[in-house]
Amino acid sequence: MSGTGQSDDPRELKAGGTLQGRVKVPGDKSISHRSLLFGAIAEGTTTIDGLLPAEDPLSTAACLRAMGVTISPITDGGIVTVEGVGLDGLQEPAEVLDCGNSGTTMRLMLGLLAGRDGRHFVLDGDASLRRRPMRRVGQPLASMGADVRGRDGGNLAPLAVQGRQLKGTVIGTPVASAQVKSALLLAALTAESPTTVIEPAQSRDHSERMLKAFGADLTVGGEMGRHISVRPGATLRGQNVVVPGDISSAAFWLVAGALIPGADLTIENVGLNPTRTGILEVLEQMGARIEVLNPRDVAGEPVGDLRVTHSPLKPFHFGEEIMPRLVDEVPILSVAACFCEGESRISGASELRVKETDRLAVMARQLKAMGADIDEHDDGMTIRGGRPLKGAVLDSETDHRVAMSLGVAAMLADGNSSLARSEAAAVSYPSFWDELERLRC
Question: What pLDDT score does 91 carry?
C-alpha cells in the first residue's frame, strides 16, 4: 500500500494505556537522501548503514538508478551500497524521473541535474507533489544559468531540466531552507567558478557536513554559519556513512512520553545535530523530563539516546527564529499544546502550508474534530489547552506527520478514534503503528 494512497479500512485507535520500553526510530530522512545522492556522484563505493527504507528515500534511489547508478536493494536493517559514477557520470534517463511524494527528492534533483550540460531530464511526482512550490529552487538556480521549466512559470511539476554549464555566483536565498541550499550546493559542484549561498537564518547543515566528508571544497562562515561557499573542481570520494535515527521521528515518542501518565521511553541512537534540536528546546521550556544518555559522535554527526518520562507540561510560544530547526515537529507540538493548561502560540510557520499538505489547516481541522480549542492564523495557530479531547473519526489527509501526531492524540482522548489513511506514516516511519502497539502497556 502506498503511503499516500487511499485505504478502505480506517485504523481503529484505542484510547488509554501507557508507553514503556526502548525504541529505535528509522534512519534520518535528510541524511538518507543525501547519502544516496552524494554517493551517486562520488568516485568509488559508498556504504550506508541505517538508511531509512521508507518511500521518500526509495524515490531518490529509483531516480538515481534510472540515470545509471547501481544501488543495492534497500531493506530494513541492511547495508546499502552505492557505486558512484562521478560528478559527470549521470546518464540521460529514458523515462520521466518519478519523485513520488518526496519534495526533497525533486528539489535536490533540480540542483543535481541543472549542470549536466547537454542532457535533458523531466521530473514528476504524485498529485500532492505536483502542488508543491518549486520556483524557490528554480529561481536561484536560474541565476547560475540553469534552464528549468514547468507549469505555473516553472513553479509546479512536471518540470523539465535542460542541463547547461552553470556559472558560479553569490546567491541570497529568500527562505532558510535546507532543500533550497542543498540544491544550490549540488549545482555549485560543477559550476565554472565558486558559488556562495547566503541564508537569512541557518537551516539544517547535513549537506555541508556530508559534502565536506566526501571531499568537496566547501567552507562555512558568516554569522551562525549562514554563508556557505563551494569551489568547483574537487573530486568526491565514496564514504562509509552511518545514518543516525531521525529526531523528527523521535519527536512523536518524546511528546507521547512526556504527555502520557506512567510513560517511560528510551529512544536509541537519535541524531542531535544542533540545526535539528529545536524540539528538545521547546520541550525543555515546557518542563518535559528528557535526559540525553550516551552522547557520542558518529561520522561527523552528534548522536545520543533520549529518555523521556511523564511530567506535567506548561504552554509554549515560539516563532520564526526557531522554525528552521523544528519545522517538521509542529504537528506533534500542536497535539502537546492541547494537553497544557493555558494558551500556546505557534507563529512564523507559514512554510507548513506548502508541505505534503497544508499542515496548519489539517492539524487544526483534525484536532477540532476531537474538541480542541484552536484558532488558525496565516502563519501558525493559537491553542488553548486543558480541555479533554474526545475520540473522533479522523483522517491523515495523506500526510505522514499528521497520521502519527493523531495516533498520539488518540491515546490521550476520552473514547476510541478511527484514522483514515493511516498508512501515510510509511513515508517516513513504516513501522510506526507496530512500534506503538509493542510499547503500549
Answer: 98
225 pLDDT tier (thresholds 50, 70, 90): confident
Domain parsing of the chain, residue ranges: 11-26+244-439, 29-242
Rounded Cα distance between 204 and 182, Å, is 10
Distance between start and end Cα atoms, the chain:
28
Calpha distance 220→82 (Å, rounded): 27
> Phi/psi of residue 5, each to 5°?
-85, 175
- Going from the C-alpha of 438 to that of each of 22, 75, 260, 431, 433, the distances in angstroms are 10, 21, 16, 11, 9
Share of the chain above pLDDT 70, in %: 98
Could you please state the CATH topology (level 3) that the domain comprising 11-26+244-439 is classified under.
UDP-n-acetylglucosamine1-carboxyvinyl-transferase; Chain (3.65.10)
Q: How many CB atoms lie within 10 A of CB 95?
A: 8
What does the radius of gyration of the chain's CA atoms come to, in whole angstroms?
Answer: 21
Q: What is the pLDDT of residues 376-429, one digit of tens each?
A: 999 999 999 999 999 999 999 999 999 999 999 999 999 999 999 999 999 899
Give the torsion sign (CA, 110, 177, 32, 362): negative
CA 31 → CA 57, 104, 193, distances in Å? Answer: 10, 11, 27
Task: Give every strand in the sheet of 217-221, ordered side by side.
Answer: 170-172, 195-198, 227-231, 217-221
Q: Where are the alpha helices (DSSP H) in 274-313?
A: 278-285
Q: Does residue 328 have an active-site annotation?
A: yes
Q: Are 11-26+244-439 and 29-242 in the same CATH fold? A: yes
Q: Cα separation of 159 and 134, whole Å?
A: 9
- pLDDT recorded at residue 6: 46
Helix (H, G, I), strand (E, B) or coil at 185: helix
Judging by DSSP bridges, how do beta strands 227-231 and 195-198 pair with one another? antiparallel
Q: Which of 98, 124, 305, 328 is catalytic?
A: 328
Q: Which CATH number fits domain 29-242: 3.40.50.300, 3.65.10.10, 3.30.565.10, 3.20.80.10?
A: 3.65.10.10
What does the pLDDT read at residue 3? 40
pLDDT in tens, 366-376: 999 999 999 99
Instruction: Starting at the earlier edge strand, list the strands of the sheet with 264-271.
Output: 20-24, 264-271, 301-309, 289-298
DSSP state of 423: G
Crossing angle (nearest 10°) for helices 359-369 and 330-338: 30
Strands of 40-198, DSSP E? 43-49, 70-71, 79-85, 97-98, 120-124, 147-150, 156-162, 170-172, 195-198
Dihedral pair phi/psi, residue 329, rounded to 5°:
-95, 0
What single-letter DSSP state applies at residue 34?
H
